[in-house]
Amino acid sequence: MLAIFGLLFLVMFFRILYIQVTGSVHGHDLVKEAEAKFNKTQVEQAERGSILDANGVPIVTNTASYDLFAVVSPEASAGTKQKLHVSDPNRTATILSKYINMPKKDILNKLKMKKPDGSPYYQVEFGAVGKNLSHSQMQKIADEELPGINFTETTQRFYPNGMFASNIIGFSQRTENEGIVEIVGKSGLEKTFNKELSGENGEVNFSKDKWGYIFPGTEKMITPPKDGDNIYLTLDKTIQNILESEVSKVDAEYKPKSIVAVVADPKTGKILASTQRPTFNSQKNEGMNTSWLNRLTETTIEPGSTMKAFTLATAIEKGVWDPNATFMSGQYTVGGRTIRDANQVGWGRISYLEAIQRSSNVGMANLLERIGDENFLNSIAKFGFGEKTGIDLPGEATGKILDQYKINTVTTTYGQGSTVTPIQLIQAFSAIANNGEMMKPYVINKIVDPNTGKVLKNNKPEAVGQPISAETAKEVRDILATTITSPKGTARNFASQEYEVSGKTGTAQIPNNKGGYDWGKGKFLYSFIGMAPQKDPQLVMYVAVEKPNLKGTEYGSEPVSKIFNAVMESSLKYMNVETDMSQVPQKEPIDSYLGEKTTDIVKELTGQKYEPIVVGSEGKITDQFPKKGSVVLEKGKILLKTKGAVILPDFKGWSLRDVLKYKELSGINMKVVGDGYVSKQSVPAGVTLKKNDAVQITLKTPKEQYSKKK
């Protein structure tokens, strides 16, 4: 027996010695398995960085959200007096259906779900409708005190402005990887800068026993998380909101196939605002499948007559521009093919200046003869067409300038055949607005590490060429302004009552899937690229509306001008740019309307694109403002005095001059407070005033009206 036990002891001794030396049994690493059992690691998630506008106003941040789940197994309540599981499924389903987008019947089915073996689940979830609940939603459900209904707190991306430059900013989604839930960018800047925004997760290491208690004498080893970087954009929230509002109005009214609009600073290349339709709302998960592509940079277009601005600039720069020289408009034959002006027949023999004003395709073809094909193509390349701008946005397209045949070069002079991107047009137009110096566009102002405050990236304005001289740029601006001020101009709808505007309209044919082009009213891409104020442009803007549903008497420039005019004027006022209207559109002086029938004159003036305001309610016209012989801008107000009670108009946006004149003509008791433009009136529009009624009109300066909100 002693020998047997001695032998067993020796075997056990050598076995223990072997285990101590090797640390493994049957291939199992005992050290690692012990560490795995008792040493625990808890991930400390980094906070995703914010995206802010040029003034530091948050555009994208993080917020707490809540995921709903229900404990349905009675085991959860075993040994307690409390109900910790769903004890009344019918009542629970009835109440939950008020707060989540799921019918009572489906909720009830969830609560009664069984495993394949027929046993109940311990807990169930409610899919997408039960995730990402806001704090207010969670609180309302919690206040119902439903047994078994619980929440897990998570973090989600918060887009407080909803549909706000969505195709630039993009969106992110919560994803789960090895039990760790992370927010991952899926498009736009959220995707491109996902690594910078994500930061680095930290961790906490500690040892605990099988009951979950930390071993005595041990300490937590903490590696703190590094929060994601904050990205500051060049976008200005105020200008962006103005743009979104006006684009939404036109989108609702005309229901076009698409809209793209962008506002930029020509002196720096900063993109101040950009939007498109269709787009999406990341906060509400609306339209997420409609359009992920950013039309500003990722899609190409045939630019139409906006390209004529660069053909004109090339002719002036090469010294071959003669505004008074003439040519025969209507048609032009090249390589056996005939190109025509938009009206198919032309306007007879006209000057090259009139060709720009009327947007004559034939005029550009004749101008190309003076420029020379090689000179023209070299100039277009200097303006950056056919090459990426290098803007800090993903997926930028290149476009293509066709030059294989003579006809390609001819059609490129007026923007057909060759393709460009809207951002290329903005970059090229910056040279005209910025005295010949072309500025590279960008949307990221700086990237900041919130952990240290260190600026990791700081973009500065960058000139990328000088395709034309300052003298040429000034002359181009002057000539393009006449497309707005001349009676022959195609851009008369873009006249501003506050600022001198210079720019070029475009009506481009759209290729179809049959190898040709669509044709007919409302079947084109209508656009305008413009700047203001003309003498020293502070903003450039491009707007394109594709296939709008036009009314019977409307032209394609109508929806485009509604966006451009409102955004350009409001943005310049917000920037506190002084108005300058020394250059008045060339309209005929107005006539005298005294003694005329009010309804007839109102109809006549409306047809001439004025805004007639009737001061009174009956009879013929007894007075007017302005007087006979005055020149009034398109959409300018003409006050017509009649007899009868005064029906108050909507004064919002009126100048002090117009308000005071209305007060004089109407004779009503009006108290005018402030300066600038009307922001509020004490009596609403449409009210018929009695003899002794008083009205207070409050005006604010542009700076007061468009000052930044803190």
Descriptive notes:
The chain has about 700 residues and is of the alpha+beta class. It folds into four domains: about 1-40, no CATH class; about 45-205 and about 230-235, Alpha-Beta Complex (Penicillin-binding protein 2a (Domain 2)); about 240-575, Beta-lactamase (3-Layer(aba) Sandwich); about 600-705, Trypsin Inhibitor V, Chain A (2-Layer Sandwich). It contains 20 helices and 29 strands. The strands form nine sheets. Strands 4, 5, 6, 7, 12, 19 and 20 form a seven-stranded mixed beta sheet that branches. Strands 14-13-23-22-21 form a five-stranded antiparallel beta sheet, with helices on both faces. A three-stranded antiparallel beta sheet has the order 3-10-11. The longest helix is centred in the N-terminal third of the chain and has 21 residues, at about 1-20. The chain is globular. The mean pLDDT is about 90. Belongs to the transpeptidase family. One of its GO terms (biological process) is cell wall organization. Its main location: membrane.
